Amino acid sequence: MSALAKICGLTTPDALDAALAGRAAFVGAVVFPNSPRHIEPLHAATLFERARGKAKIVAVTVDADDALLTEIALILKPDLIQLHGHETRERAERVRMLTGAGIIKVLPIRTHEDFAEAHDWEPFADHLMFDAKPPEGSHLPGGVGARFDWMLLADRAFRHPWFVAGGLTPDNVAQAIRVSGAPLVDVSSGVESAPGVKDPALIAAFLEAVRSA
């Protein structure tokens, strides 16, 4: 079975339409002001309504407080909340209860040792996402084009379908899938012409590469 793709950090109708036309399984709205892809919940709700029923809508958050999560849940009504900060497993349970959404937990990876928490997280997350640790000094937890050694994921088994992320592009995603065995892939900066500016042609190329992997 082919891997499924998430296009993250969508902010415009053209980019979202390209993701839907290419049959992305997940589409992501980043609700984090420090990100060049930040979108307010009300704007996201208006934009992403066209995706409902066609792809899973994911709200990407970073250590969001209860007030923001409640706003996201009431206005955007995402299928999944992506936790991209330092959230604990107990916090994930609180987020699930507060929002009624499923949970994607991002775990930053550089070495074998960084997988230590993965199995402890499995009862608390619908999907794990293994993303590259950002470079030292980065003020963003992801979306910076960093990548890790996909061989670190080879032959690992997890309870639920999991994502590989970090530095994926139309040119390397097929290799990432083959090497890691990932059932799900996530891309943001790898389909942009500039930080935060999605390129519909690159989105289409990425999704075609995933289908062909």
Model description:
With 213 residues, the chain is α/β, with parallel strands linked by helices. Helices cover 30% and strands 21% of the residues. The chain is built from 7 helices and 10 strands. It has helices at residues 13-21, 41-48, 66-75, 89-99, 118-121, 173-180, 200-212; strands spanning 4-7, 26-30, 56-61, 80-83, 102-109, 127-132, 163-164, 184-187, 192-194, 197-198. The protein has an 8-stranded parallel β-barrel, surrounded by 4 helices. β1, α1 (13-21) and β2 form a beta-alpha-beta unit. α1 runs parallel beside α7 (200-212). The longest helix has 13 residues, at 200-212. The N and C termini lie close together (10 Å). The mean pLDDT is 93.
Distance between the termini: 10 Å
Total number of strands: 10
Number of helices: 7
The helix/strand series, from N terminus to C terminus, equals EHEHEHEHEHEEHEEEH
Biggest β-sheet strands, sense, barrel: 8 strands, parallel, barrel
Structural shape: globular
Q: What strand order characterises the main sheet? A: 1-2-3-4-5-6-7-8
Derived from helix and strand composition plus strand pairing, the structural class reads alpha/beta
Helical percent range?
25-40%
User: Poorly predicted ranges (pLDDT <50, ≥5 residues)?
Assistant: none
Mean pLDDT across all residues, rounded? Answer: 93
Quaternary state of this entry equals single chain
| Rg over C-alpha atoms, rounded to the nearest angstrom | 16 Å
Strand percentage: 15-25%
Features:
two-stranded antiparallel ribbon, 10 strands, alpha/beta, 213 residues
In short:
The protein has about 210 residues and is of the alpha/beta class.
